[in-house]
Amino acid sequence: MKYISETATIFTRYDKNIEGLQKKARNVSEDVVLQKLADCLVHGNEDEIEEIVREALVTRDPMDVINKGLLPGMKEVSRLWDEGAYFLPQVILSSDAMIAGIALCEAKMGRPVEKKAKVVTHTAEGDIHDLGQVIVNALLNAAGFEVINLGADVPVDEVVEACRIHKPVMLSGTALMTTTMTAFPKIAAKLKQLNLTIPFVCGGGAVSEGFVTSFELGIWGKEASQASGMAEDALSGLSWTEIRTKWNG
Ligand code: B12
Asked: Alpha carbon of 179 to those of 35, 184, 189: distances in Å?
């Protein structure tokens, strides 16, 4: 019978490993408070994040808090995941902290009483990665658009039906997986069949410009910050082809 002589490596405290890796997270800002915010996100500390976001919002613009603190922090989380350092539990904690932080920024931005026009937003069928969509929602709201938020994992027909009912100036889609982004051309084809030529801005880590511009109505959204500018263009009467020409290469 064989006996194992070295047992030290059999049981691994992943939480202890992660403590070390978190210390290796890169600094993302020279602003002490924004750095504290990014660190808090990397540690997935939902309890503390609210206090730090409130502190940051005292003297900073909510957009800066999102773009210079929360987003770079989440990029570090993505990097740790890509390097195999983080597992699902850590990423879930970080994304919950991110959502809590964005909600506070959104509340601070305030919402104009009169809405300019409707924009339908969704995350693709089968996909629960909704952080990009949450940011897009916050920015569109802040820019005065009425956001019809369908949430995540939305069936193709539900998206099409929402467009038929609400007649939005723009449709937004987010997909983080190669398996789910295939919903976008299906939605676009169904909209075309109904003669609903709504500019359909598709973003999310999985989608590329080449993919999105390969189907009619599709416009590639690289950064969430483009969403309100694109919606303004749609509101001013630019067609999906004109918006694509303006924003895509
Ligand atoms: C966070 C995360 C999760 C979280 C999601 C929490 C949430 N509420 O979103 C949790 C832990 C739940 C999760 C689960 C899973 N995940 Co995950 N996850 C990630 C991770 C680490 C970060 C993604 C993220 O949120 N990025 C930050 C956001 C802000 O980026 P974004 O959405 O792309 O948005 C930006 C732009 O694209 C743009 N944008 C987006 N939408 C729009 C719209 C408009 C209009 C505009 C203008 C712009 C725009 O603006 C934003 C920036 O400004 C990535 C790794 C990575 N490197 O990306 C993996 C990743 C996406 N996950 C992956 C996988 C496989 C999964 C799981 C299947 C794992 C599992 N085995 O269970 C499940 C998915 C279950 C499902 N059915 O969806 C894979 C996908 C692989 C692929 N290409 O198909 C990735 C790439 C990891 C990897 N390298 O393998 N995940």
From this structure: 35, 11, 18
